[in-house]
Design a protein that fits this description.
Length: 121
């Protein structure tokens, strides 16, 4: 839980642009909270050895939710090509990799807004 709490604190530094809506430490709880809260982005603490993580990735892809994949080894990130993974972040979290991640998320949000505004004209 230290990693999760540390990540929550770092995310909260980026308020009001981003905020932690809910956290979960189990598959069923995560699915329930995702259905209820309809997040734009999910941070998934991913372990390639855990089949449940792969199932959750499939569920998130079907719901068209952007995923930030948190991995302990970059080789685990190779799975990201098959899913809706916006970015991969390697643990342990650092100020630098958190900043890169949020800049990427923010850039995507801006691009989506620009595309939306263009299509409205």
């Amino acid at each position: 839980m230290v990693e999760l709490n540390g990540l929550k604190k770092k995310i909260n530094q980026y308020k009001p642009l981003f905020r932690v809506v809910v956290t979960s430490s189990s598959f069923n709880d995560a699915l329930t909270k995702i259905k209820k809260n309809k997040p734009d982005i999910v941070f998934l603490d991913f372990n390639i050895e855990n089949r449940v993580d792969l199932i959750l990735l499939k569920e998130l892809k079907q719901k068209n939710i952007s995923i930030i994949l948190s991995v302990s080894h970059l080789k685990d990130a190779l799975v990201s090509f098959d899913y809706n993974v916006l970015h991969t972040i390697e643990r342990p979290y650092t100020e630098e990799n958190i900043a890169v991640t949020f800049n990427k998320i923010y850039g995507r949000l801006i691009r989506n807004e620009v595309l939306f505004n263009i299509s409205k004209k």
